[in-house]
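Supplementary material to the annual report.
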Amino acid sequence: MEIFFQQLVNSLSVASVTILIGMGITLIFGLAGIVNFAHGEFLMVGGMATWFLVSAGINFFIAVLGAMILVGFLGFVAERGLFRFTLERPMNGFIMSIGLSVILQHVVIRLFNEVQKTIPDPIGQVWVVHGVDIIVMRAIVIAITAIVVAITYFCISRSRYGLALTASIADPDTAALMGIPVRRYVTGVFIYGSVLAGLGGALMIALFPITPFTGSVVIIRGFAVSLIGGLGNVGGAVVGGLLLGLVDGLSAGYGFPEWTDAYSLVLMIAILIVRPQGLLGGTLGPKAS
Amino acid sequence: MIKLIAVCAVSAFTGVMIQKSRAQDQELKIGVVAAESGSFVSAGNTIVAAARLASQQINDSGGINVGGKTYKIKLYIRDNRTDVNVTIAAARELVNDIGVTAIWGTETHDFSVSMAKITGSAKVLQFSGNSSLGAVLDDKSVAPGGWLHYTFQTEPQEWQRSGSTAEGVLTLLTPLLPHPPQHSVVFVGNDATGQYLSSHYVKALEARGQKVDLVKYPPDTTDFSPLLTRIKGLNPDIVHFWYNGDSTLTAFPQALKLDVAPSYFLFGVDPGIYQQRQLKSDKPVTLSCVPVCWGASPSPVVQEYFKKYFDLGASKGPQSSVSLLYYDYFFMYAKALEKVGSIDKPDQIVDALLSMSYQGVVSPVPLTFNVHHQVTFATQVSLVKPGTSDQFVSTIQQPPPSPPPGDPGG
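Predicted assembly:
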């Protein structure tokens, strides 16, 4: 029974970083209409930046902020310098983002070499509750994810900006006529999604080592989460992330362990056949004006 | 005017002399195919670095004297971008367009086999550090006319390495455990190499009285906690993290936090990396490297090699030691060329390699190739003193004389 509860706790921590990645993708893909395959590399850059700052003696939590700012700026440059020119032709943006992901991998290799990077566990404690090991840093990652989800959900569904953003997606032309700066909103969403990737990378390196190729692995799960939940739907990303985390945790524990990835992707395929719009429904991205 | 004429004459004479000197030094074209980009870059870079160090040392010491001519090595390095198609294209270019006499590489079995189909038909020698080549190197394939006649496996056969590793791990861990270990879990990445290597290692452990459970993980796994929890539920005496150093370095700290087992073995994790990462366990941990460790080698020759290797700017990573699967064979090849007296007689060069022994860096005993073109050397296994990151006890284990029951060899 202890092993079962341990697997549930594991599932929750597996889910948390996935939710952060999925949420960034769902915002950028679902709300800005940009398929950014380099989003995983944005996460990797966040992790590498955190490693660099922590190695230079900076406190981990300050380094997290630094990584978020850096990746947010990277997102701003990428949106203004690249993706802005592909809003009319999303496939061009998609191919461009694949190129960007390879470029970012090799820029990082050039700067820091190819060897995986790690930092000491910022907390380094384990709580043992009724025989279940709870790694404190993982609990903190879960808590940070919950806070970020709550803030994002509030901003999208309750704030004035969120309503304007929703209007921009529903009918960009009318929204523009009513004075909503649609393109500026696209930039804002892209930067926010990138900041989330920076946060995800910073938290990830507190749990696992990161290599220049980490991004290309996590991006698949990020897209799976955002599609399962429904593109553009923050709540959907949370549901999708929890579902994948649970499937991963329990299948690794009780199924064929080497098929762990396959279980969650089969689930994604099944959900998309039954509910093409995702579990909680979503958008297909705005029609850029 | 006279001064000007004198200067011109001296310049012309100097130029002629330089050209003459260059003309005397022939160029020995050697290809290197390795991943300098893509996901195998950690291993690929070590091949390139080893090739650069070896060729620089050979050239600096005067080159290779073959049939009265002095040859200097010129490397033609090609990035395979961790892509088998690029590997094939690079091998074709090196063989057909550039005309190399030998190729070093690659970091993975599938790529090496693909390349061997090109080098073999062109009678170009190939040196590949993949123990899994043992699955295809046999009497027929290495015979004259066989497709692997010109291919050499520069890593010991897997049953040998598995046997020496298992022996070293059990020898070092047994005195530190409350009872002799009986139950091992081998935790391995589920790719072609992982499957091949673990099949031999499981047999080696079983031959030493261990009940073995094999748990495979998807190769790109980062969060191992669900799998490690499953392993914890099996109550093993030893968890063996097998084959991929990078994955092991991700999984092992998680295993420590989840308190998965009373002892561990980490394959492909150098003591230097263990120390660099400041890993620490109150449980006994053993380590082994492919093929010898740069972090805690008892051999001064190996220590000197790695000093020169890192001085060239190579990275200190889990796979740095892989460079020693490639370095010595440059010198061995040079000796074979000198013995044959020609760079254009590949069959005689193969015979020369098979008949010679060479005292290299990788092994305290001279390297020799067996009839299947495979080398044999010992394995270093190190024990980390519990509670420390930088104190190691190392043992050098010789390979067993024959494969264990149920292991087909290869």
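The interface with chain A takes residues 37, 39, 41-42, 45, 190, 215-218, 220-223, 225-227, 229-230, 232-233, 246, 249-250, 253-254, 257-259, 277-278, 315-318 of chain B (CB under 8 Å).
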